[in-house]
Amino acid sequence: MVTDWTILGLLAGGITSAGFIPQLVRGFRTKKLDDVSYYMPLVLIIGMSLWLFYGVMRRDLSIVVANVVGVCCNASLLFMKKLYSRVDFEAG
Amino acid sequence: MVTDWTILGLLAGGITSAGFIPQLVRGFRTKKLDDVSYYMPLVLIIGMSLWLFYGVMRRDLSIVVANVVGVCCNASLLFMKKLYSRVDFEAG
Lengths: 92, 92
Description:
2 copies of one chain form a homodimer.
Chain A: H1 2-18, H2 20-30, H3 39-57, H4 61-84
Helix pairs in contact in A: 1-4, 2-4, 3-4
């Protein structure tokens, strides 16, 4: 039954990680992320890194995969936010 | 040792869920969520609901708590986005 839970976990993790992709696409297209808080991706990176550690320690593949993708997505979002707000100091 | 992992998991879950709070606060203050994609909270709600199911099935308290809070935060974000874009049809 462990395999079934792993599949469910991977599906849950895949969908959760995929949630950040439309935000990345929107940001890339509009080159505007002013309404996105700096702290959201920042705090999510810290939290997801802890989840990653938790997943590794509990040997739970679903948690590991989901959070590796999640950290990458949020790091990209943070980078884009920084990049696009360089010329616009109002953004903060 | 299970208790230690539960504490780590709760910490990870707490921080990850807390990540959405600055976004909610920013949205509430500025009344603008134009740069936030509709699909991000929508897809996250679906993914986190699956995580919640996974957590219940695996009897993992950390996963359950983290995802209940996560679903609530993202539902609020989606509601705010819908509310604030009512008068601004450009937002989409």
